[in-house]
Amino acid sequence: MVQGTSSGAGKTILVTALCRIFSDLGYSVSPFKAQNMSNYSYSTKDFEISRAQAIQAIAARTTISPYQNPILLKPLGNYKSSVFVNGKYYKKMHANDYYKKFTNKIGLKHVLESYNKLQQNYDIIIIEGAGSPAEINLQRYDISNMKIAEKTNSPVVLITDIERGGSFASLVGTLELLEKKHQNLIKGFVINKFRGDIEILKPGFKKLKQITKRPVFGTIPLTKFSIPDEDSIGSSPKKIVWNKPNLRKLDNEINKIANVVKSSLNISSIKRILK
């Protein structure tokens, strides 16, 4: 499972890359994100899910399925969202009702059912978290991060965006704010969007391991690519038309970022924690 120290840390792109990398290694792979908030979706006459998970399914070379994103929230403003469950419109909900009446009752049930259905058909499921697992005001309602890692017995890789600054503090702070049982699920870290000489980071890696007893699996350089981003704060995502020429371009971009990640991370170490 890939979790992040914040929104925009690079979870979506890392999962996309890992889906392609493990597909290239001969595994049957599926992405999974319990809950996604996005106004950019992939839709057919039968279902609608976040386009991020659709792109990840393409990266994994597998069929796009509503089970890969069992809960989709499409923001409407004023703390309200249209809620989709297993690809179907469910209802409009205010955030207060969603958290207190939906997540830990109806939502979690559908999430685990969807995960179990995928697990029956794939060698590896690469789960993407949402936001940060250390939002202590929301942890009791969080069905996207540690609760899912715990219930699926998934090892967690924690990614951080070093371009924003404060990455080492964010990694240590995130770990410290988690319950002990959830801390134990985090197996290592990934530094994302680094520019410069990797040697200047190595003292930080050493100190980080002294404090957390966990390794850095690698550092991903800041890389330009044309995979559409999510509609998060401060971004202006590109729309995508799901036709053959665009899918070919998308596939090329997936290969590009997969090659960057493969050359930047210790994939064999990540592979070992999956076993």
Helix content: 25-40%
Largest sheet: 4 strands, parallel
Annotated CATH homologous superfamily: P-loop containing nucleotide triphosphate hydrolases
Round the Cα radius of gyration to an integer and report it: 18 Å
Order of the strands making up the biggest sheet: 1-10-11-12
**How much strand content do the residues show?**
15-25%
> Which ranges are low-confidence, i.e. pLDDT below 50, for 5 or more consecutive residues?
none
CATH class: Alpha Beta
What order do the SSEs take from the amino end to the carboxyl end, as H and E? EHEEEEHEEEHEHEHHEHEHH
SS class: alpha/beta
> What is the CATH architecture descriptor?
3-Layer(aba) Sandwich
Provide a count of the helices.
Answer: 9
Average of the residue pLDDT scores: 93
Could you name the CATH topology?
Rossmann fold
Morphology call: globular
Distance linking N and C termini: 13 Å
Brief summary of the model shown:
The chain is an alpha/beta fold and 275 residues long.
What does it look like?
The strands form four sheets. The protein has a four-stranded parallel sheet with strand order 1-10-11-12, sandwiched between helices. With about 280 residues, it is α/β, with parallel strands linked by helices. About 40% of the residues lie in helices and about 20% in strands. The protein is globular.
